[in-house]
Amino acid sequence: MASSKNSGDLRVAIGGLGAVGLVVARRLDGGIPGLRLVAVSARDPAKAARKMAGFKTPVPVIDLGALAERADVVVECAPPERFLDIARPAIERGRVFMPLSVTTFLDHLGLVERARETGARIIVPTGAIVGLDAVRAAAEGTVHSVVMTTRKPPKSLRSAKFVVEQGLDLDALKEPLRLYQGSVRQAAAMFPANVNIAVALSLAGIGVDRTRYEVWADPAVSRNTHTVKVDSDSTRFEMTIENVPSEDNPGTGKNTALSVIAALRRLVQPLTVGT
């Protein structure tokens, strides 16, 4: 893995300064031993510069495709339509590529083979889900079933592709409404911006076709809630996580950004805990 010419720190670049990217950038600017923010990219460079005005060390706002030229690690926090603009250069240059648009990544799994050829690594952060280490361990044996159920406040799903296309008025809900039940693969097509964690779960376990998924709009919940049930030949477990929504984007839990920070720390820490 390449390292900075000026220090032993890993150089980190972030594509996108939204609800997740800005939090990660601020934490890096605040100082994480072994890591150094060197560049960001954003749709509005002037706005991005204003967001970083209070940084100890403001960094340049550059084109998405140029992030991999400056960094050892490239974190993708951009709109799905810009995914390949970040991913391809990072993979071609043999960088560590950390995607958050995991649903979009599902359509480009050929990048995995290309990464094998170039020496790049693709690391998908755990995000707003829980227990991916347990799922990965179970998948070393025989997994009989994985079922995930997501319940979100209606406002978190207003802009979902399926909801918009069906013309559903979720604000009028008085009781829970199941919007979807089926495979993760089908859910990815219907809710492309809302099922990143379900895709991550399926990639850690038994795949997008065998992993079952339900999506509920539930006016009784105030947090994005995900329950995972796994049955295998080695273990059986059920896990639930309730994520506090981000102020900037209610569809994204605050823990998503923290998960990215934890994944970055893992790259440089002498001790890591978990599979």
Can you put this structure into words, describing what you see?
- The chain is an alpha/beta fold and 275 residues long.
- The protein has 2 domains: 10-127 and 255-268, NAD(P)-binding Rossmann-like Domain (Rossmann fold, 3-Layer(aba) Sandwich); 132-249, Dihydrodipicolinate Reductase, domain 2.
- 32% of the residues lie in helices and 23% in strands.
- It has helices spanning 21-30, 45-51, 67-70, 83-92, 102-105, 110-118, 132-138, 161-166, 184-190, 196-204, 254-268, and strands at 10-15, 35-41, 73-76, 96-99, 121-122, 143-152, 177-183, 212-217, 224-232, 236-243.
- The strands form 2 sheets. A 5-stranded parallel beta sheet has the order 2-1-3-4-5, with helices on both faces. The chain has a 5-stranded mixed beta sheet with strand order 7-8-6-9-10.
- Strand 9 (224-232) and strand 10 (236-243) form a beta hairpin.
- Helix 4 (83-92) packs parallel to helix 6 (110-118).
| Proportion of helical residues | 25-40%
CATH class of the largest domain: Alpha Beta
| Overall domain count | 2
Distance between the termini: 22 Å
Unreliable residue runs: 1-6
Major β-sheet strand ordering: 2-1-3-4-5
Radius of gyration: 19 Å
What string gives the helices and strands in order? EHEHHEHEHHEHEHEHHEEEH
Largest sheet: 5 strands, parallel
CATH superfamily of the largest domain: NAD(P)-binding Rossmann-like Domain
CATH topology group of the largest domain:
Rossmann fold
Helix/strand structural class = alpha/beta
Quaternary form: single chain
- What shape does the CA trace take? globular
Number of helices: 11
Q: How would you state the average pLDDT, rounded?
A: 92
What's the number of extended β-strand segments?
Answer: 10
Reported CATH architecture of the largest domain:
3-Layer(aba) Sandwich
Strand content: 15-25%
